[in-house]
Design goal:
Chain A has 207 residues and is α/β, with parallel strands linked by helices. Chain A contains 8 helices and 6 strands, in the order βαβββαβααβαααα. Helix content of chain A is 43%, strand content 22%. Chain A has a 6-stranded mixed beta sheet, sandwiched between helices. Chain B has 620 residues and is of the alpha/beta class. Chain B has 4 domains: 216 residues, Thiamin diphosphate (ThDP)-binding fold, Pyr/PP domains (Rossmann fold), CATH 3.40.50; 102 residues, 3-Layer(aba) Sandwich (Rossmann fold); 169 residues, 3-Layer(aba) Sandwich (Rossmann fold); 67 residues, 2-Layer Sandwich (Alpha-Beta Plaits), CATH 3.30.70. Chain B has a 7-stranded mixed beta sheet, sandwiched between helices. The longest helix of chain B has 24 residues. Chain B is globular, with a radius of gyration of 28 Å. Classes of the chains: A alpha/beta (207), B alpha/beta (620). At the A-B interface, helix 1, strand 2, helix 2 and helix 3 of A face strand 8, helix 10 and strand 20 of B. Strand 2 of chain A pairs antiparallel with strand 8 of chain B, so a sheet runs across the interface.
Chain lengths: 207, 620
């Protein structure tokens, strides 16, 4: 949090909801009176490409881009993407990672290999890692689309504001668009928080 | 996006540059807005189309969109048009004479430069058009400025009867920031179009009289730039380096060097040379930070102002803090900021075609045909150049597949004398600029087989409508082009026109094979919709029977992202040749049952999934 600016980088693949998650995070920061800038490098990401969404908030944000080595938090919706972007974190920074492995066609047809153990690679660089299977949690709650809210829940205890502010931003969105989904999303949010806490505990036990 | 339109004045909203411009255009009382979709500009018109009391249209190309805006401005109304950088290449024919007539109603043209090439075939600097056409250029640095400058641009355009270019970049168009919005102020156009052939009819004699007026206007514009509140100085305390910066680069400079003096160029063309000269005198060294070309820098050097620019900064890509800080440290002889750890080596994840995309069948088929050269075009189907198909050999610009195919045919060398030439083009690109090329090909006796991939959408930019979709910008019914009749009326023989279903591989293969043998122009039109639009109807999904899959890999050649190789094995064929077997599974949860992978599967190992059983996920 240099210069009172918080830098959060959310990464994944086109279609996973990376941009929406960052948007909700931005709404939470705005609700607290922060200045906010949010930028994506998405390109043609609708077609299964890499998406990285930068969120910066604080008293006054100038450049919208997070520079390598300065992110306070990296949220990865996919394992290899967590590995791809971890150099963006400040030294010793925290990665929240969905353990899903989404294999692109270039790997399927044998041109490249999927890394054997992205988690180990991230830890070897000295970063903290909280990893959990967001998709399994979402399926357990009955809807794969809840994965996004699970990821938001996992972030809740790593922000410079109380978890309730982010939860409110999530629920506000569903109240307006899909009121029947409010309760389920609240559960998904709490499940994400719990998964993060459990992952943190596990890391603490093995460190 | 929908939240922007009904928002009351004085709301503070998180808006992208595109959304901010749209709001400002509407508030400015603009009556007519037109565009052709193009990343990163598309959302400006998409958002505008949700506002009331403004006419919006998807035009067939950028030139037409500008002409529509010109007509409205001649009629005395405020008008707007927007495009990506390459769009202005197309529209420039109109721009270069528009500068002579000028306008009555305010006309603002927003151009989105794709600095960093997130989704474009080149990286060009649209600020050149300001110099070329003698029109002013405004450069916002974030969403709030994009909003404010758009409103100022309308007033300025009307005051000086000149179109104003708003130069944006991807890092403005697609960045969200907080914007305080205002109210719509209706624009009064009581007088309407006034007949004035000396001004509106640009014959050589008429134009000749307008050119001196344009030069006179240049002087006025320069004086305006010198005094514009859009060009402001941030007085810094560290005078060792002063910066002149515009667009997103201004924010990067402020971020990187908080104590440095900065002259922010918001009104950057004509360059306020005197203002910069005065600023230069207050600092030890002057560095010009402008993204892409050294336009301001060259003009300052021509005016004998000592400055640095592209000697120390790259000419390509964004000028973000990680580029600026080391460059300035080197200039000052300071230790260069330590290199941050290099990124981990991870496979690339290029964009892919969608699961069940109708283009998959086309490229799977083209990849099987030998001795052909394929001239490609701009759209999702440009991805056909990639793996596993490698079935597209050229891409240059919108509609270019036609002319280039004809040139490949007419210019063939000895080695290519038996080569068959094909061209691949989408419906929207064909209507944008491909029709003329096809007409040329027919008229001049070309030997080319054209694949017109009609998926009823501008797919790459998000499925916008065009004259081939039967819907207008609001999704309302509109006249729909009949492609078969259109190409026939351009002169393609009726028996050389085929409409085929790209999901039926044998027919597609046979049709292409037969047509490439015939030495004249053929057009094969595919007729299945983009899977991302409402017209697409999902079918029952498939799965792979593990015990039946022989690992032949035929289905992998389709290139569908739902097919995953789960196991590889080396095997020796009866002929003694070693082959690699690829055993596959289908991600049934995303499969929409197009059947393209089923057709080349010899052992019938791909069957409809039993949806009563729990769905199996491939990679978990």
């Amino acid at each position: 949090m240099s210069d009172n600016i918080t830098n959060i980088l959310v990464v994944g693949i086109g279609g996973q909801g990376v941009m929406t998650a960052t948007e909700i995070l931005a709404e939470a920061a705005i609700a607290l009176g922060h200045d906010v800038k949010k930028t994506e490098v998405a390109g043609m990401a609708q077609r299964g490409g890499v998406v990285s969404s930068h969120l910066r908030f604080g008293p006054k944000v100038l450049s919208p881009q997070i520079m390598p080595g300065t992110a306070d938090l990296l949220v990865a919706f996919e394992s290899a993407e967590g590995m791809r972007w971890c150099h963006m974190l400040k030294p010793g920074g925290l990665v929240l990672m969905n353990t899903a492995r989404l294999v692109p066609p270039v790997v399927d047809i044998g041109l490249y290999d999927y890394p054997d153990d992205p988690l180990a690679e991230i830890k070897a660089r000295g970063f903290q890692l909280h990893a959990f299977d967001a998709l399994a949690i979402a399926l357990e709650l009955g809807d794969v689309r809840l994965g996004n809210t699970v990821m938001l829940g996992a972030m809740a205890d790593h922000l410079p504001f109380p978890p309730g502010v982010l939860l409110e931003a999530v629920l506000k969105r569903f109240r307006a668009r899909k009121p029947q989904m409010v309760e389920l999303n609240q559960k998904a949010f709490e499940a994400g928080r719990a998964a993060d806490a459990a992952a943190a505990h596990k890391e603490g036990a093995t460190a | 996006m929908a939240a922007v339109m009904p928002a009351p004045a004085a709301s503070r909203l998180l808006l992208s540059g595109n959304e901010a411009v749209a709001r400002a255009v509407w508030e400015s009382g603009c009556k007519v807005a037109a565009a052709y979709p193009g990343t990163p500009s598309t959302e400006m018109l998409e958002v505008l189309s949700t506002y009331p009391d403004i006419y919006t249209e998807w035009s067939v190309n950028e030139k037409v969109s500008l002409e529509v805006a010109i007509g409205a401005a001649f009629a005395g109304s405020r008008s707007f048009c927007c495009m990506k950088h390459v769009g202005m290449n197309v529209a420039s024919d109109a721009l270069m004479t528009l500068t002579l007539t000028g306008v009555i109603g305010g006309l603002v043209i927003a151009i989105a430069d794709d600095v960093g090439l997130s989704s474009s075939q080149n990286e060009q600097d649209s600020r050149y058009w300001g110099r070329f056409a003698h029109v002013p250029v405004f450069e916002p640095s974030d969403s709030q400025e994009a909003y404010a400058m758009t409103k100022i641009a309308f007033d300025f355009s009307e005051q000086h009867q000149v179109p104003v270019l708003l130069r944006m970049t991807t890092r403005i168009n697609h960045v969200k920031g907080l914007v305080t919005i205002g109210e719509r102020i209706p624009h009064v156009n009581a007088e309407g179009f006034k007949k004035d052939p000396a001004r509106w009819v640009m014959t050589p004699a008429g134009a000749g009289k307008r050119i001196p007026l344009m030069f006179e206007r240049d002087l006025t514009l320069r004086a305006e730039a010198e005094n514009s509140p859009l060009n402001i100085v941030d007085n810094g305390t560290d005078k060792r380096v002063g910066f002149v910066a515009s667009g997103p680069a201004y924010m990067h400079v402020r971020e990187s060097f908080p104590a440095a003096p900065v002259l922010k160029l918001g009104f950057s063309c004509p360059v306020p040379v005197d203002k910069i000269r005065a600023f230069a005198a207050t600092v030890d060294r002057l560095v010009i930070v402008e993204e892409v070309e050294p336009l301001v820098e060259m003009e300052l050097k021509a005016a004998a102002i000592d400055c640095l620019g592209k000697e120390i900064l790259p000419r390509q890509g964004e000028l973000a803090p990680n580029v600026l800080k080391p460059a300035i440290a080197r200039l000052l002889g300071e230790p260069v900021p330590e290199n941050i750890a290099a990124p981990a080596k991870v496979f690339p994840r290029p964009p892919t075609m969608c699961v069940a995309c109708p283009h998959l069948g086309v490229y799977y088929t083209l990849a099987q045909i030998k001795n052909i050269t394929i001239s490609g075009d701009i759209g999702c189907y440009t991805l056909g150049a990639g793996h596993p198909w490698n079935a597209l050999d050229t891409t240059i610009s919108m509609g270019a597949s036609m002319g280039i195919a004809l040139g490949l045919d007419k210019g063939r060398g000895e080695a290519d004398k038996d080569k068959r030439i094909l061209a691949v083009i989408g419906d929207s690109t064909f209507l944008h600029m491909g029709m003329q090329g096809l007409l040329d090909m027919v008229y001049n006796g070309g030997n080319v087989t054209v694949l017109l991939l009609d998926n009823r959408a501008v797919g790459m930019t998000g499925g916008q409508s065009n004259p081939g979709t039967g819907r207008d910008i609001h999704g309302q019914e509109a006249p729909r082009v009949d492609f078969a009749r259109l190409v026939e009326s351009l002169g393609v023989k009726r028996e050389r026109i085929h409409v085929v279903d790209p999901y039926v591989l044998p027919t597609l293969f046979k049709t292409i094979r037969e047509e490439i043998k015939i030495p004249e122009v053929s057009v094969i039109i595919t007729n299945q919709p983009c899977v991302l639009i409402d017209d697409y109807k999902k079918q029952k999904p498939y799965e792979v029977l593990d015990d039946k899959c022989t690992g032949c890999g035929n289905c992998v050649e389709v290139g569908c992202p739902a097919i995953h190789v789960t196991r590889r094995e080396k095997a020796v064929k009866p002929s003694g040749k070693e082959v690699e077997l690829q055993f596959v599974r289908i991600e049934t949860s995303v499969c929409t049952g197009c059947s393209l992978c089923v057709q080349p599967c010899a052992p019938d190992a791909i069957v409809h999934a039993d949806l009563t059983k729990p769905m199996r996920l491939v990679k978990h």
